[in-house]
Every structure is written in structure tokens, then in C-alpha cells.
Amino acid sequence: MTKDLTERKDFTSKMISIALPVIFQSLLNNSLSFVDTLMIGQLGEASIAAVALANQMFFLISLLFFGVTSGSAIFLSQYWGAKNETNIQRVLGLSVAVAGIGALIFALASFFIPRQIMYIFTTEEVVVAHGISYLKIVAISYIFSAISQVLATALRVVGHARIPLLVALFSLSMNAVGNYLLIFGIGPIPAMGVAGAAYATAASRLVEVVALLIIVYRRHPVLAIRTKEAFHWNKAFLLHIVPTSLPVILNEFFWALGMIAYKVAYSRIGIEAIAAINVAESIGNLFFVAMMGVSNATLIMIGVKIGEKQIPLARLYAKRFIITALLVGIAMGLFEVLIAPIFAQFFNISDEVRRLAILCLYVHALTMPFKSINIVIIVGILRSGGDTRYSMFAEMFGVWAVGVPLAFLGALVFQLEIHQLFLLLGMDEVSKMFIGLHRIKRGTWVNDLTIVH
């Protein structure tokens, strides 16, 4: 009894130590992004539109970063559990190379063909002009972000989740202060407008990567790449890593396309519908950060146990995380119901749009337990066990076989109101949940990736 109680306390303390820093960092990112938007918004609609559209490049490259770091976390957690430092270095080297090359391509495109990029989104010349000045400056920061995100993920895996949080707190605070100084100009500093926001962003991301590199090379030698060996990947190693990691990257890409398809369906209802759903999602995402933290803890903790060859304990952890996801999802959903009307008052929108936004938030709260279970199963459990093809299947089936058809049926055929369509789309989460739970029950998701077959 005492041993079981001690093990449960160990599980809870480890989950909290990983999840809380991720939650705080996500809230920090969302809060400072909101402040940045308010600052840039003071320059006028053209400026805020230009930065929002230009940042679609960073959104796209961020999907690659997330896919690469999620894929690397699968192997890093298992290799960390197995104490295989050689392969930890190789996984880090491969992650830096893939994310870095992707970032370099996007950076070169943003620097050399910013006009063509902006024309993809708009033909308004004033918006294009502001977007060009922003893209040419911020382009270099993509490379900084690539390295930062790989290092931050690795630090979380080895049990130092607070370090990326503290570094992010410093760099994002620097970004906010830099925005204020450079956008509007203070004292001898000239007002640079949109270009000032770009300089502040690039500088803060440079500071972030330098700080992480210093910390890693001084305090965490297992994560510090010092020799060319980290970039020596033979065919057997690549054939072991790529088939598991590639579905994670593809998953993020096709999920993003699915979300774009949802937005197209929403637009068929009308401008008020688009405004309402955007307000609802911006508020609703604040309540979902708790599950981002729990899913990170799930991936790392189960992966480590698999690497340590403690398969029965890994399966037990999976059950505990699903229960945790359900309870946290219910709690966040109830909290969202109580807070939604208050948050909706912050936006300068019509009464009708506010009413629709609040109804959408109630729907979002209702689906929160399903979303919570799904992110823990798909992003956490299945990926930690190397079952990435099935996790991709579950995600793609929910989005493309259920969600996208229902989105266009609801908008074009049934002509539903936006909150009714939002509720209908909850079926994609329900379908994903049943597919995922079926896989967990069968138990075929556990794969020891430290063994090369």
C-alpha cells in the first residue's frame, strides 16, 4: 500500500513539474501576443493586417518545428530512459538539421521574395508594403526559433522544463518592451512602426537561442552537440527514425489544412459568423493550454518508462493520463462557461456577434472533455509509444472523413447558424476519441524504439 501510494505521488509530482511550465509558457505566449497585437493595432488597420498576414509564414514554419520536435521527443524520451547518450545526440543533430533547413528556406523566401508572398494573401498595396518591411527583417528569426524549439523540447524531456519557461519569459518580455520602444519611438529612439515590431521580434528570438545555448553547453552536456558524430546518420538509423517521425510532421500539416477548410466553411455563413468564431477561438484557446501541458507530460513520462523497459507501468500511466484528461477537460469546460460572457465583453463587436461568440464558447466548453482526451491520446500516448501512423490516422479520419464533410454540409446544405455548425463539428472529436480509445484498449500502441530491428 505504501509503495503504491509513493508511486502515485511520484507520478503526480512528475506530471505537474512538466505540465505547469508548459501551461505557463503557453499562457505567456498568448498574453504577450495579445499585447503585441494591441500595440501594432495603434498604427491602423493596414499595419495590423500586414503583420497578421506576414506572420502566416511563421505559422507555417512553426508547424514544421512542432512536427520535428514532437517526433524528436518520442525518441529522446525513450533514449533518455535507456540512458543512450549517443543516440540522444544523433536525434538532436537530425532535429536541428531538419528544422534548420526548413527555417533557412522560409527565411530566404521571406527576404528575397516578400512581395510575392504578401500577394498570396492580399493585393492591397499599403498592406503589402508594410508586410514587405516586416518580412525582410523578421526572416532571420526563423533560424533562431528552429534551434530554440529543439533545445527547449530536449530540456523538457530530461526533466528541466522550467528552463525554457524562464528563458521564454525573459525573451518575450524583451519583445514586448522592444515593441513599445521601436514601434512608437521613445526619446532618441526613432519610431519605426511595423519595422520596429520586426526588429523587436528578431532580437528577442536571438536572445532566446543564445540563452538556451549557453545554459545547455554549461549545465547539460548530454544535450550539447560538440562533435560531428551527432550529424553522422547511417541508413539503419534514418530508417529507424524517419518512419516514426514523418507521420507526426504530416499529421500537423494536414491538420492545418483541415482547420483552413473549416474556416472556408464558416465564411459561407457570413461575416458575422467569421467574426464570432474568431473571437470564440481566441478565448477558448486560453482554456485549452492546461491540456497542452498534460499532453507534453504524457509524451515524456510514458516514453521514458518505455525506454526503461517498464512496459506495464507505461500502460498504467496511459490510463491515468486519460482519467486526468477527462477531469481537467470537465473542469476547464465549466470554467469556460462561467468566464465566457465576461471575456466576450472585451471585444469591440456588435451585440449579435457577441451573442454568437458566447454561444460558440458554450459549445467549445461542451466539447472540451473530448478534446482533452484526444490530445492526450494522439499527441501523448500514441506518439510516446511510437504508434505515430495510427495517431495520424485517428487525427486525419476525425478531421477529413468526419469534420470537413460535416462543415460544408452544415454550412451549405443545412444552412446552420455558426454555433450550430460548431456543435456539429464536435463529432470529429467524438470520432477521434473512440478510435483512440480502441487502440489503447488493444494495447498495440507500445513500441520500444530503443531497439533497432
Protein model, in words:
There is one protein chain. By secondary structure, the protein is an all-alpha fold. The chain folds into two domains: 12-233, no CATH class; 236-453, no CATH class. It is built from 16 helices and no strands. The protein has helices at residues 2-41, 45-54, 56-82, 85-112, 114-121, 125-138, 141-157, 162-184, 194-219, 235-267, 271-307, 311-344, 351-384, 388-413, 418-424, 426-442. The two termini are 39 Å apart.
Quick gist of this model?
With 453 residues, the protein is mainly α. The protein is 84% helix and 0% strand. It folds into two domains: 222 residues, no CATH class; 218 residues, no CATH class.
Structural class: mainly alpha
Major sheet, described briefly?
A: none
Number of strands: 0
Helix tally? 16
List the helices and strands in order: HHHHHHHHHHHHHHHH
> Overall pLDDT, averaged?
89
**Strand content of the residues, in percent?**
under 5%
* Radius of gyration, taken over Cα atoms and rounded to an integer in Å: 22 Å
Low-pLDDT segments, ≥5 res: none
Span from first to last CA?
39 Å
The percent of residues in helical segments reads over 70%
Total domains = 2
- This entry's quaternary arrangement is single chain
- Please tell me what the overall shape is: globular
SSE topology sketch:
Layout (H helix, E strand, L loop, with lengths): L1 H40 L3 H10 L1 H27 L2 H28 L1 H8 L3 H14 L2 H17 L4 H23 L9 H26 L15 H33 L3 H37 L3 H34 L6 H34 L3 H26 L4 H7 L1 H17 L11
